[in-house]
Fold these 3 entries.
Entry 1:
Amino acid sequence: MTEFQQKVYEVVRGIKKGSVMTYKEVAIAAGHPNAFRAVGSLMKQNYDREIPCHRVIRSDDKVGEYNRGGSERKAEMLREEGFRR
């Protein structure tokens, strides 16, 4: 695992229930502000339940895709956690 991947996963692990970050915000927090597409790719490949990738959304406030059930499941999980926007 690269240093960038480790930083991204660390940032995403820190997103609390009921909160979200955008792919760009995660990239910035990981120290690579222009790597938001790479963050998206990492989240798409993530199957580790300890890394809550469903809490990472698009900058246009759309939830985006989710590799474990699609965007509907992702939105449902966020609602269940109390996220409202």
Entry 2:
Amino acid sequence: MNIIFRILIGAVALLLAAYLVPGIVVDSIYIAIVAAVILGILNVVVKPILFLLTLPITILTLGLFTFVINAALFWFASSFIEGFYVSGFLPALVGSVLVSVISSVGNNAIT
């Protein structure tokens, strides 16, 4: 039951990011749920590998390169989900930060 709430919170965060950030488009609630699931899978599987590969750059930038990794995954997810569009790197960066903050707040509220 907890994972369903987390997916729904992620979907709501994506819809809010699409509403607030120009350059991010989510066509429907169904697409937002699918995108939340795919982003969750990417964050669990791909993000740790990217983090390890870019560890020297991350250390050199005092951890700020993690934002670039998050934005790249956000933008990458939009490239193969029909109905979820991100127009460039800057909307991906702002959208990924916004989705992360909203998801963190929402997930802390349900636990």
Entry 3:
Amino acid sequence: MSNQSAQTAGTSNDKLKVILAVVAATAGVVLFYFLSDKSMAVRAGALVVGLAVAAGLVWFSSVGRGFAEFASESVRETKKVVWPQRKDAMRITAVVFAFVLVMAVFLWGADKVLEFVLYDVILGWKK
């Protein structure tokens, strides 16, 4: 990943773009429900337009550029990962399932032992 410092505050232009994007997305959702008497195509169109305007506003802000840079760096780092072979992945998955099964049985047994000790031995409540 890059060693760039994180920016916590952008310019007022960028803040305005993000605020307008939130307003546009909210307007799209509100219009979707407000136009309940219209056809689904009109309602979906209002929603899509609102979300598209919001995405466009965010895309041209520093937040959007930062997100795009982060996404591209994430894809680049993911390509560097050495993924296990199918055989190894299946073996690891089997070990995890076996461990979960053993822990489930152990916790069930511990619960039953504690239930017996608490209710039958200490409190004397028989079921």
